[in-house]
User: Fold this.
Amino acid sequence: MATSNYSSDAIESRSTPGAGIGVFAKSPIEAQTTLYTTSDEYFSIIYRRYWKEVCAHCFNYDRGIDWKVKANSIGVVFCTEECKAKYMDRLSPDLLVFLSNAEDYARRRKQVKPVPREEGEEDDDIIPDSRIIDQTWVDSQNTLVEVLHAISRDKPSKSQRKLISEVQAAGLRSYDDDSDTDIDSLKNLASYLTTNILSPSTVTRTLELSTTLEPFTLSRLLDQQVNQYLALVSLLPPSLTKYALPTTAIAKILAVDRSNSFGIWSGSSDKSSSQSEERSELLGSMLVPSLSRFNHSCTPTVSKHRYRRTWTFATMDVVNTDEEIFITYLGGDEKTLNVEDRRQRLLNGWGFVCGCTKCTAESTDSTQSD
Ligand SMILES: C[S@@+](CC[C@H](N)C(=O)[O-])C[C@H]1O[C@@H](n2cnc3c(N)ncnc32)[C@H](O)[C@@H]1O
Assistant:
């Protein structure tokens, strides 16, 4: 897999007041300068609904047509034999076993009926307290260790076999009628393990990123994701058990994922598209740690564009020395929304109150005119 590179050495990461770390210009940068091109090893998921339509290697999507080159046993398709060869070359035989096990397991979810909600249980469940979230992940580490012991043995004991079957049954339990949603969640967790096997340094860099969000929006998802993760670990071949991430690391990656991932939108695959993010269908999402240091502004100075698997970030205007460089997290909607709506969207989606110059100026204006 190609690595990332700063096409310009005129930028660097630095602390920025009120927003952790950001990206700054070390020297003046012309407009339309490419700052970054990357096709790093990163976490990614193609949503189950689209798995037959999006090339697992390069993310090529052609108006919803199914690709014919397949690797059915691991639930992926490719636009060409060349993409298939590149994708499969990265996978060791044992990783292939894990991915096939995970795919078989995901298919079992289709046969499971969702657990009916208890009487009085609200549909719009509440966000669990962050101490409960932390404690649940910490507590599940003991089970993880027991699962790892069990699967490392040639002949697991009766109680170990029971543990594995309980863990696997719990991972399939769901409250959602839409089995695709559960499969997406499973496959997302499987991509964390796969990334750790293929590129442990990507996981290390991800764990260094800051986030203002909890990993869950609904309390019922907490148990579900813990159980799904334990079940996935039980599917690892013994040679790969050393790549099982501690449960607290999974909680952190889930939280980072929520606030740092980029959507894979069908429109932005089109090279001739004049828009950087022409939105139509959301095919999946990807988390690219090397691109995650850019803060948001409602007057962005950098455009981001994805062509297939590769992201390119380029300046839209001249940037001066020591100026912070911003992208937009709102995909162009910042141009039409008012300050309240922009801030609300960023708070809901990313968990922060936007402190960009535009929001600060407009919120001061509205306070003064009140
Ligand atoms: C993708 S990360 C950007 C890098 C991050 N600043 C860091 O230190 O790793 C997104 C996080 O940066 C902060 N952030 C980004 N843009 C911001 C803004 N306009 N106002 C306030 N905080 C912002 C928020 O904490 C947000 O959750």
About this structure: Residues 18-22, 209-212, 259-260, 292-293, 295-297, 350-352, 354-356 surround S-adenosylmethionine (CB under 6 Å).
